[in-house]
Specification:
Elements lengths: L1 E5 L3 H13 L4 E5 L12 H4 L4 E2 L7 H4 L4 H8 L4 H10 L4 E3 L4 E4 L4 H14 L3 E3 L4 E6 L5 E5 L4 E4 L1 E4 L20 E7 L3 E2 L12 E8 L6 E8 L3 E3 L1 H9 L1 H6 L4 E6 L6 H14 L15 H10 L8 H17 L1 E5 L1 E2 L7 E6 L17 E3 L13 H18 L3
Parallel strand pairs: 1-2, 1-10, 2-6, 10-20
Antiparallel strand pairs: 3-5, 4-5, 7-8, 8-9, 11-19, 12-15, 12-18, 13-14, 13-16, 14-15, 16-17
Helix pairs in contact: 1-6, 1-12, 9-11
The structure holds flavin-adenine dinucleotide.
Amino acid sequence: MHIAIIGAGAAGCFAAVNIMRMMPTAKVTVFESGTRPLAKVAVTGGGRCNLTNSFLGVRSVESVYPRGHRLMKRLLKEFSHEDAYRWFEEAGVRLVTQDDQCVFPVSQDAMQIVNTLLSMMRNSGVGILTGHRANAILESAEGGYDILFTNGCCRHADCVVVTTGGSPRLSGLSMLSTLGLDISEPVPSLFSLSLGNDPITALTGTVVGDVFVAIPGTRMRASGPLLITHWGLSGPAVLKLSSYGARWLAEHDYRANISINWFGDANEVDVAGMLSAMAADNPQKQLHSVFSRRFNSRLWLFLLGRCKMRPDMRWAEIGSKGLNRMAAMLTNDIHAVSGRCRTKDEFVTCGGVALSNLNPSTLECRHHPNLYFAGEVLDVDAVTGGFNLQAAWTMGYVVAKSISLRP
Ligand SMILES: Cc1cc2nc3c(=O)[nH]c(=O)nc-3n(C[C@H](O)[C@H](O)[C@H](O)COP(=O)(O)OP(=O)(O)OC[C@H]3O[C@@H](n4cnc5c(N)ncnc54)[C@H](O)[C@@H]3O)c2cc1C
């Protein structure tokens, strides 16, 4: 049986290696449009590759996979984060789990993951053809599929696995147009927010360890570290919010308000209590000189300005009304978002091939036998933390197993 895998990314290469393990006599060819296989994996996690997560502290699969959580819940039973951890360690990659539960190679080098997968593919006889961009998949009269490439090549395969990754534009999925699949309109996810000329951007480089961010009037909210950049807001809390709100934000042209609770999960009453205690302990000190350890002095001065408080005022002068006003602002600091940043720090696609096209147990296309999908090309995406690569490993593995179990 000749199996063609279209796209030499995380899902495609992982599927190829596992197919060869399960079916050593299969002929597997991976077709890649670019010049290098696994090029994106090489830059993941800032070049360190956050390849999975311990899932400790994950409240629900839905909280980390805003799209595709039901499918992922089912598939993770087949190949979980623990399976992925074991799989890579058995392949010779020692792994480490950070305090934030993200898993990286001990070498801190994404190229170790790339080279491990590539040598496993080569050693097991997988063919890798770069410079092959598929532009159509046609059902063949004698069974199987003919794949047409933009370089003029045409290849026949008994079984095709599409692992072409995310594409924030519908045109990126045009190769599938002959198949009549339902497509969920792709839009970007995991992006930083631009705040235009908001003076907060002067604090570029400031990190606050634990804030709560929300889009007022919606149910979209997220918590975690916040990074202030020269264009606006970033960091895990904002990336998570952009993931939860990917489609809503696209529909609103990335214009919205963002509310920041600078004290994380503490509510207005809690914060008013903290401020009163601070005032009681330091009545003669000036506001600028006594502040919570979660802020640096530049950010505290900025926040005092937002609260309309003079930095040289003494804590005793504020009074309970003033303290309440400060608490209200510090727990609901509203800024206007003027757009999304276009840097591709850890950008993924929300949307893609709709899951309704597939058998959720095998990832085989319902109306096109022997045609499988895996990875970000599907309408599955996650927040940051190693969950996107975990989805690629899980789906790549499930497709390999499904193909190997075909009657
Ligand atoms: C900068 C960056 C950092 C990231 N860091 C992390 C991280 O640390 N942890 C994490 O979990 N996730 C991370 N992600 C997300 C993660 O990389 C992706 O979710 C994951 O690579 C998806 O795997 P995939 O195999 O579906 O697609 P990809 O890895 O994107 O692979 C798809 C492949 O298909 C090829 N292709 C596309 N179209 C065609 C075609 N028509 N014909 C032939 N080939 C084609 C592409 O060239 C590509 O090589 C990061 C993303 C970015 C952009």
